[in-house]
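Sequence in, structure out. Go.
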Amino acid sequence: MAALDPATPVAVVGTGTMGQGIAQVALVAGHPVQLYDALEGRAAAAVDAIVGRLDRLVEKGRLTADARDAARSRLTAATALGELSECGLVVEAIVEQLAAKQALFGDLEKVVADDCLLATNTSSLSVTAVAGALRVPGRFVGLHFFNPAPLLPLVEVVSGFATDRSAATRAYDTARAWGKTPVRCADTPGFIVNRIARPFYAEAFRLYEEQAADPATIDAVLRESGGFRMGPFELTDLIGQDVNEAVTRSVWESFFQDPKFTPSLAQHRLVQSGRLGRKTGQGWFSYEEGVERPAPRTADVCEAPEALRVLGRIEGPMATLMELFGQAGVEFRRTAQPGDPEGCFVLPGGTWLKVTDGRTATRADGPCILVDLALDYRTCTRVALAPGADADPADVRAATGLFQALGKKVSLIEDVPGMIVARTVAMLADFALDAVGRGVASGEDIDTAMRLGVNYPRGPLEWGRELGATWLREVLSHMDASHPGPRYAPSRALDHRSDIDRKQGEA
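Output:
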């Protein structure tokens, strides 16, 4: 293993929240750690803060007193960069400004040995650009920790254009020796997590702009049907609307304003108004004392039909629904009529019921109600339905009753392409496939990063394989037809994967 020996001194420059967290990780792993900050007194204050956190770990039984005392003896504050000359690794966690980082590393190169590993914790700047003016750029890497660094396991190890493979390997192995889960990544805007996560926010905000549903309902559907830990509206209120928009805008501009990464006008207006989320008391939701959070749109109790007609071959998510409806006592009758579609249920009034394929229900050749995708229809607690303009109101109530008979809450949303969960998951999987195809990271590392970095219930590539590339391409192609332009156009990687699956199916 190429990890740094625990006896090797490590320095952290910048003593804010991230700097202190990274220093604590290295310290607990056994390294002597030096803290430096350009502002006088900040490094010494950070030492005291870290020691305080170690004391609390002892109180909670997560660290022994002896280990705390040993760590405290290895932690020092430096008053000048020259004091870092013996370090084998220096991690920078200063302000997110390219010129400031370049100047710092230029000064560090004059102090440390040529075999000292230099690393930036940047989340938005190019690792290649930060290292651009260095005399020895091959030893420079990105080590992107997630906040809070002592708790969250993921570290993105980013190789810039000039990074030596040996340096990246050493950084990777060191992060792993520190008890982290590192993933390898090329120097691309947003790296892995901030690049691939963009549709999770962007599609929700676009659904809001299209008036598909209110923020509370969109959040509830993505949580209770999609399996995400938090909805995008409540999550961005927690992160800070200004912070989240800044990341989105940075990635968009770094990709030369690629429409797939276009920021949200609704979120921009929120930021302009100063409604930044929890920290200001108002964001998408109000956090003022005594103000209740809006409830998601939930349908009243309806009666389920006793029987459904079944048309054509039922497969994929529809097969799971058929199994669940059968367990709830619904009878199935296979009787076809001229003009009937394939692979759907027919409600008593003649309205079709099927899982979304990216088209609106109103575009179907007959009256239709669409069902949104779920992570698992067996365990989800909410399902979204989108009735077409010509759907029989009695059949809308019947469809609602069907899912309520399964113990699900039902949210009726407006008839928009791809609904909520389906369009979000399709975009996430396509972004992930595109990243693999462009050499950003391996599929395994991408799925690991999205599970650990943003707590997704399933890696987007794993989810995409379960749904099938054909289904993903169909959903995005139909959305692309509804919203012409490159935003929803399937990536070349998804097209290729779908073609392979089709040929293997024909073999």
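Check: The CA atoms of residues 99 and 468 lie 45 Å apart. The two ends are 44 Å apart (CA to CA).
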